[in-house]
Amino acid sequence: MGTPDFSVPSLNALHENGYDVCLVVTQPDRPKGRGRKMRPPPVKDAATRLGIDVVQPQSIHTGVFEERIEALAPDFFVVAAYGHFLSERLLAVPRLGPINVHASLLPRYRGAAPIQWSVINNEKETGITTMRMNKGIDTGDILLSAKENILPDDTSSTLHDRLAVLGASLLIKTLEGLEAGSIHPVPQIHDQATDAPFLKKSDGKINWDLPVEMLDAFVRGMSPWPGAFTFFENKRVKIFKVAPAAPDDRMPPGTVIKGFPDELRVAVKDGAVSILEIQGASGKRLLIRDFLRGCKVPSGTVLF
User: Fold this and answer.
1) Quick one: pLDDT band at residue 32, thresholds 50, 70, 90?
2) Which of 76, 101, 165, 254 is the right S-S partner for 96, CB 3.0 to 4.6 Å?
3) Helix 42-50 to helix 8-16 angle, to the nearest 10 degrees?
4) How far is the first Cα of the chain from the last one, in angstroms, to the nearest whole number?
């Protein structure tokens, strides 16, 4: 059970390691892109290439769907970023249990966006946890975990790709350990839990009153979605990359500081950042020098 790109390496690993994947459950096709054409989720594409049966129920909370899953009598479920909660009836089906591949070191960052929030919060380390699912939100007993460093230039996208591969590897180790009886589930320490709630488009608005280090982490964590943005002349612009810059103590946060012609420096809480990559309201992603050739941003301008 999975939907986005994160799920694909786990599906591929199951197939490559000889597991009999009798069914793939994923979300329905959705309209995407400017043309709003219906597109299948990445997991459906992967399953089709592997010749595995796929179902895309609008709801998994129906007797018809639950009966179909029960009839398969699976040894286990593998759930990796599926996007729906499983009923207690479904959780009770697999002989070896429902196994979730989660992109954090639980109990930290429970929820829908653990990768983004770990970058936004400027964590230095995250990882993958496999757990035995229960009816809570990422509250099940831990089976195995593996750590992954968060690099200074990581975006959510680059970290996502490494964690997806790490998750696939840890999944196979988990299944082998469960079959061998060598894994002993460990209850989570719930007092240490933190949340990673779903991000909305509006969450990408930049707060220029952040310290340099945290603002950089925010921009990287919001890439590629929902994207960090600010407003210039009442038009929304996206910010893709920033770097520390020489400050001007006289300027309040969000104010453009005088600099070289190909430079856009902005005051923040404890200094300044230089915007390196940007996208105008109706343009494309550009290096700042190219953006400034066609759009002047005078010093003293306040971004908000």
Assistant:
1) confident
2) 76
3) 20
4) 41
Residue 180 burial (CB count, 10 A): 8
Residue 19 confidence (pLDDT): 98
281/178: higher pLDDT: 178
Answer whether 0.85 is exceeded by the pTM.
Answer: yes
Tell me which residue of 246, 248, 230 sits closest to 303, measured CA to CA: 230
Residue 274's H or E segment, with its range, is: strand 271-279
Q: Tell me the C-alpha to C-alpha distance, in Å, between residue 243 and each of 111, 203, 268.
A: 30, 21, 12
What average pLDDT does the chain have? 96
Mean pLDDT, rounded, for 161-177: 98
Closest among 37, 27, 17 to 57, alpha carbons compared: 27
Domains plus CATH for the chain? Answer: 5-192 (3.40.50.170), 201-294 (3.10.25.10)
